[in-house]
Each structure stands twice: as C-alpha cells, then as structure tokens.
C-alpha cells in the first residue's frame, strides 16, 4: 500500500521551513519564514497555536524527547525554548552572532545542539539554559547539526561542502567527509548510530558508515535535497526536494521506493513521527502535510544485510554492503521471555518516569520565565529610581 495524505494544515503566511512530531503524535510543530511557530493538534477540530516571539524567520523547530518543550532557531540569531501550551511562553538563548539554522535535542533531553551562519556549532544545557561550548572548524555557514542516538557524537553539514563528525567529550573533529559536490543542507544519524545520511545542492543523498568512515550508499537525484529523515526502523529514508517531491528510499534494497507529489513549489522539510506511522512535510507553498506511511506494515522478518546496487532516477550508485544496523523489527515469539505482566509493569514505570521528566522540563522552563520577568521588573525598578534621583537633583539645583 502506498503512502497517503492524511491531513493538511494551512495557517502559515510564508514558506514552511521545519516540521517535527511530539513523541505521542498528539502534536506537530512547524516553523516558517513568517517568523512564527505553529503547534497543530493531530485531533480533528482542535485549534492550532501560533507562537510569536522571534523577530525574523524561524528556520528550525524540534520537540524535546518528552514532548514538553519545543526549541526553535531563527534568522534573528537567537534560539528559543517554548512550553507548547496556550500561553506559548519562551526563554531566549543568545550566543550565536548570525542566523541559527538548526536545533536538536540529545536523546536524554539534557542538551541542545545548534548550528549557525556564524560557522559554529554550539552545545547548551537545557535545564540550566547555559551555553557550554562551540565547535568551529567549518569555513562556511553550518546548515545542520545532530546528536548521535547515544549522545557521544555530533554530526554537522555545511556550505563548505563538508560533513564533519565530532566527539562531544573531547570537542574535536574526528573526521571530515568531503564527497559532496555542493552545499550540504541536511544530515542525520541512522537510528543505530552507526551511519549517517546527508543531502544537498548536488542533488545526491549519501550514506556513510561512521565506524569505518566509508561511503555505503549513494543516490543520485535530479533536484536539490533540502531535508531528510530516517524511519525509526532504519530501513527507509524520506527526502524533501526542490522539485516539489518527497522521495522514499528503501535502504535494504538500495532503491527509490516512492515519489510523492503534494506540494506546489519546493518541498523544504520532512520528518517521520517517533513510531514511524506518519511523516510530515512542509513547503514554500506555506502548507504542512501529514502522510500515513503504510509501507512499514511489512517489516516483520529479520533481514540480514546484503549487497546493494542503488539506483535512483536511472542513475547507478555505489554497490556496497549495508551493515550499519539496518534490519527489520523482530516478530514476537511465543516462548517470549518476558511475561505480559512484566511488560505492563515496565511500561507503567517508563510512562511514570517520562511524565516526571516532562514535569521537570516544564518546571525548569517556568522558573526560567519567572527569572526573566524578575530581571525585567528589577530593570524597570532601577530605571524608576534613577529617574527619581534625577528629579530630586534637578529640584535641589
């Protein structure tokens, strides 16, 4: 069964630049050149929230792993952290000196990595909202930066035509991939953490093994690739291109599976939901579209890595072994070790912990907002006292 269009969201007044699902798939956030963020409810007839605060185009948005916070980056050089509720309050992170193009939470929700036109990648703590350190070896705008699933590595892509791999602890660049023939717009880690995919203005998508630093697959398209997203199973990759299409690549077979037409004008961003049932896309046509995956219903068997010769749009890619953890989900066996009761207890405990973490996120953010207000009040009070003193001085003179 082919992927199908599920929902259509209209509300932005300019090109949509970024989309992301909350973990529970209840909400979808989008950023736009209209300087707004919008949080859409996946429930029909539920209103959307428009968040105002950035002074210029919003170029990137992402939900925290708990879903209780949203990070955004803008052309106004700031990063904001929002509580996605009716009030839509936010706190500001300032350290970049140019447009912020990318925001990404670590999988534990404790850190945030941002990428900017100031040629740097910056890492922040989420709870204390402090800037930690900069990574600066790119010699042009940095378009995208992502944490590895285990949080130990960072990958970045740039207009200097390179993709760089960084060690978060030592803060050193471990490797530079220089095979792209143009600006590299987007990069991300495979769910296994063992390989990365990157796409850019040379109309290609390339996959590298980060353990061996070797090229695994190469897909040659016919239009600029703006964004890409791995399916949680790790077996598929979706891309958004300037030719207005979304393309789904089958990484097991090493071939193009579907080409989807929906947007008028360039498709600018795309993202799978956390469970892979849905994916969302945005375009310069100001529209946000939600698609039902459908093709992921058949990954029941365990598939061994095999040889591929990738072919997209009739152009052959590199035929190499894909052994970076791409395999299907295992089917449940009857002699399963865990009892259903144990599973239920574990799920309940996991949900409780997640809820506590989420509440902590909200509390931290609320405290930060209160601190901001207190600072503003103190500033106003100081102004008033200074004015009062001037008046008294003038009177005595």
Automatic annotation (TrEMBL):
Q: Which Pfam families match?
A: WD40
Which keywords has UniProt assigned to this entry?
Coiled coil, Repeat, WD repeat
Coiled coil stretches, renumbered: 360-387
Q: Which GO terms describe its biological process?
A: cilium assembly; microtubule-based process; multicellular organismal-level homeostasis
Q: What GO cellular component is one of the record's annotations?
A: centriole
Map the WD repeats onto residue numbers. Answer: 9-50, 51-82, 93-134, 135-176, 177-218, 225-259, 260-292
Q: Which SMART domains match?
A: WD40
**Key word Coiled coil present in the record?**
yes
Which superkingdom? Eukaryota
Q: Which InterPro entries match?
A: WD40/YVTN_repeat-like_dom_sf, WD40_PAC1, WD40_repeat_CS, WD40_repeat_dom_sf, WD40_rpt, WDR55/POC1
What family is this protein classified in? Belongs to the WD repeat POC1 family.
- Quote the function comment for this protein: May play an important role in centriole assembly and/or stability and ciliogenesis.
Cross-referenced PANTHER family: POC1 CENTRIOLAR PROTEIN HOMOLOG A, WD REPEAT-CONTAINING PROTEIN 55
Q: What is this protein called?
A: POC1 centriolar protein homolog A
State the encoding gene: Poc1a
